UniProtKB/TrEMBL annotation:
It comes from Halogeometricum pallidum JCM 14848. One of its GO terms (molecular function) is tRNA methyltransferase activity. This is Methyltransferase. One of its GO terms (cellular component) is cytoplasm. InterPro entries: MeTrfase_TRM5/TYW2 (IPR030382), SAM-dependent_MTases_sf (IPR029063), TRM5-TYW2-like_MTfase (IPR056743), TRM5/TYW2-like_N (IPR056744), Trm5a/b_N (IPR040601). It holds the Pfam family TRM5-TYW2_MTfase.
Amino acid sequence: MNVPCVRVPTSEGEATRRALAERDLVDRTYEITVREGSLYIPVTDAAAVRAEFDVVEFDAEARETQTMPADVLGFDPTYERLGDVVILDEDDPDRARRIADAIAESDLRAETVVNRASKVKGELRVREWDVLIGDSTETVHREYGYEFLLDIAEVYFSPRLATERHRVVEQVREGERAFDMFAGVGPFAVPMAGHGAEVIGCDLNAAAVDYLHENAHRNGVADRLTAVEGDVREVADEYENWADRLVMNLPHSADDFLDAAVRLASEECVLHYYDIQHEDDPFGPGIESVREAAEPAYDVRVDTERVVRSYAPHEYNVCLDVTLTAR
């Protein structure tokens, strides 16, 4: 089957495999193959491979010896992976324990297995976990060539939004000023700085801000990223008319912060506004809220209306890309 592979001379194969494995990019469901003096290493995400490596399509054989949790259980369990942590969402504690034991018995790489013990709650957006295997909820998540240290018990993080974050980051241009109003550990802020922007990342969660500092250094962008702890409605006074780009990824209550966003916006500013709305009118309420906050000081142009994912029955998590232009 043709899959993305890094092609290197065999003499460089082991060093390359280690470099890819450190970034969790080796696809272990396919065999590493030697062919005519080259080594073909299957990768999970071609876009995240550094430019120095040659990525090609190659007919790699599936590994036959890999044991997956479904092979142990007799059914295919649902789980998410976040670095070395595997996340379950099971209402039945006994079923959760069975799945965790099967994961430990399988070839799936996992240091910790947890089950969700609460919904996301509080203004810091954290949840409780039942730790079934392992003793640490801290992990390193890798995404589109960047890595993020985080503790899922102390900060909010969703790996499901990786594609959406990448879509936004790809719009960033060198030299612009970007403000992430709810930055967390930096999955928007760090890559925006990596694209050459000067970035302010703000969050109310002190632990998230500590990880944001660490992740800025870890990814080599500390000189372009300032992490600020506090309520962005208060922080906005220090950065009035500063931002060329604003990220508002707080979909349940972003409309409460639109006045702060307008204060932060420069004469021309792109706003990425996240919302959760009913399928009957997923974009209308957000557009109305942005116009109400920004007009008449700004002209409001809606550039993109995007459904990010299904959130609940008949509800969507959506994003509006909006350009604000001062009158």
